[in-house]
Description:
Blueprint: E1 3-6, E2 9-10, H1 16-27, E3 33-40, E4 45-53, H2 54-71, E5 87-94, H3 100-118, E6 122-126, H4 137-140, H5 144-151, E7 174-178, E8 183-189, H6 194-204, E9 214-221, E10 226-233, H7 241-254, E11 259-265, H8 270-281, H9 292-301, H10 309-317, H11 325-345, H12 355-394, H13 399-433, H14 442-472, H15 478-487
Parallel strand pairs: 5-7, 6-7
Antiparallel strand pairs: 1-4, 1-5, 2-4, 2-5, 3-4, 8-10, 8-11, 9-10
Amino acid sequence: MTPFECVPNFSEGRDGAKVERIAAAAGEVPGVTVLDVERNADHHRAVVTLYGEAEPLLEGVFRAMRVATETIDLTQHHGEHPRMGATDVVPFVPIGDATMEQAVQLAERLGTRVARELGIPVYLYAAAARRPERRDLAEVRRGEFEGIRASIGTDPARAPDFGEPRVHPTAGAVAIGARPVLIAYNVRLATADVGVAKKIAHLVRGRDGGLPEVKALGFEIAERHRAEVSMNLTDYRVTPVPRAFDAVRRAAEGLGTTVEESEIVGLVPEDALFDAAEAALQLRGFERRAVLERRVRAAEEAKPGHEPIRQFLGRLAARTPTPGGGSAAAIAGALGCALGEMVIAYSSKGPPTDPELRDAASGLAAGRERFLVLGEDDARAYEAVRAAGRARKERPGDASATAAYTSALRGAAEVPLETARRASELAQRLAAIGPRTNVALGSDLATAGALFRAALEGALANVRTNLEALEKAGAPVDDLRVEAKKLTP
């Protein structure tokens, strides 16, 4: 499973029925889950959070955009938040084992279809940007709907990445891109002076010399007679929520006002809130596994279908063909990832700020989850070989039975080959950041490396066994053999 989050923003925050229609259009696609719907009347904007694998998610987002195009008229739209389209921005966010490169491909595929079928010009932004200046969403949206409408046909810098150089008459244009998880965070001030909010936004945003990985704007919330600093924390591990809040609070006090309240828009990673709790309470030695809900989840995962390690080891020790060496190799890789994550966690006071440590921690976490899946896949792949082998014996001379057998054998080789590939990559990444880790954890680092070597060697042994069977069956194996040879220590 390769899941993604997608968080399309729509220029409608006052008509609840419209927003429900837009979200429902995405949710009716099998495989798409609507995780959250947030709408803000002052900003006149709705944020819908969707989750699913690539193909259903693409279809769900497109259907939601089609409804937004049919129901939202930007010529009649006025709100506090900048906007360029009925569907204003569509970011794809890789989750788990998904990569940013895959998220970029989704953005490009959606952009092609939106331009062709909805007649809306598309600008690729963030990690999907084809021009350096378009990595910044604010630059893409500069001038908003009216400004883009006036210049798109004459200014080459405004040429869209997909579609004709003219806005849709009522739905405008759209920015589609790929980015990491971000936190949308608003801080409301005890003043109605939007000038104060804009000054604070200037002081805290990264591009003006403020906090790194922070984008900020100042808004007037007229209905509440308040001003607000609206922020996007594009990497909460670099600038956590408490640090952003404190910066706004101090700036507000310097300008003669105070903070009244704050809010998170949409969903938020639980670790970001744990960071805030630890900072506010000055907790010492707090273990996040001590959180009640996490313990409950662990207990739930121990139920049938979420196998605990003791049960897995019992099955591994039994006189049964699966799980076997390939599954054990994958579990060794997962253990190596977990131990490497622990080393990084204890090498930083709080979330890692070193980019290489942070990237390594993210890669190890994704690897840990993938290795667990590979352990299950290996057992299923071997069972498929056994079933196909029986069918071939029962139907000698049947070409389809022979083809099914060689296909199953190839699958049984490809699973441990992926295990070997990931073990090799993660071992190298862990070794590279070794000098940056706490020297007191040297034995843990060494153990993690040994586990990755076990995963690599065990998986390659399984690959070789299946390649021999494939050769006996007369199937081509050169591509698999070449990759296995490259991975061999």
